[in-house]
Amino acid sequence: MPATRTELLQGMPIFGAIREDVLDFVIEVSRSVTVRAGSHFFREGDPAASMFVLEAGSAAVLKGWLDQELMLGKLQRGDCFGEMALMDLMPRSATVQALEDCSALELTIEHLQGLFERDAEQYLLIQMNIGREVCRRLRVTDEMLFRLQMGEAFVPRRTDFSVN
Which of 138, 56, 48 lies closest to 94, judged by CA? Predict the structure, then answer.
């Protein structure tokens, strides 16, 4: 288990190959967020301008359907979520609710702008990594949809898919 925030970020795909000084900057500018069990990081449809890195606790990713909220996935320490907001600037595509008390780092568009001004190359690498992560998730979703259309169930493994 990572002992520090920097080690936690180093183990995440979106921060792959990012220098330690840049990770330290990301941690320094990020806001620490605490969300109590049963409360929400955000709700589907909310305006979006940040992503989160879960430092402690677990959370459910929920999607509304016919007046119900259905669980799409579960997030654990070290997972990131909400990163699509840093790319498409669209409202939240799902709800994230704490299953237990959680702490997370929140990274906003403004924080990334500050990184761009400090080190454009590292900023671009993070953006590419976010794009890769979103594409990986899209591939899994495509496979799930295809198998569903073919009448075959596809249950993703935790390593296949973590939703935002």
Answer: 48
What is the Cα–Cα distance from 101 to 4, expressed in whole angstroms? 19
Q: What is the pTM of this model?
A: 0.83
Q: Set out the domains of the chain in order of their start, with CATH numbers.
A: 5-149 (2.60.120.10)
Q: Which pair of tokens denotes residue 77?
A: 């320490």
Give the Cβ contact number of residue 140 at 10 Å: 17
Phi then psi dihedrals of residue 142, to 5 deg:
-60, -45
- Cα-Cα end-to-end distance for the chain: 22
Does residue 156 surpass a pLDDT of 80?
Answer: no
Pair of tokens at residue 97 = 């609710």
Residue 141: which residues within 8 A CB-CB, separation 6 or more? 161
Please state, in angstroms and as integers, the Cα–Cα distance from residue 51 to each residue in 5, 66, 156, following that order. Answer: 16, 27, 23
Q: Which residues pair with 34 in a beta bridge?
A: 103
What does the pLDDT read at residue 163? Answer: 45
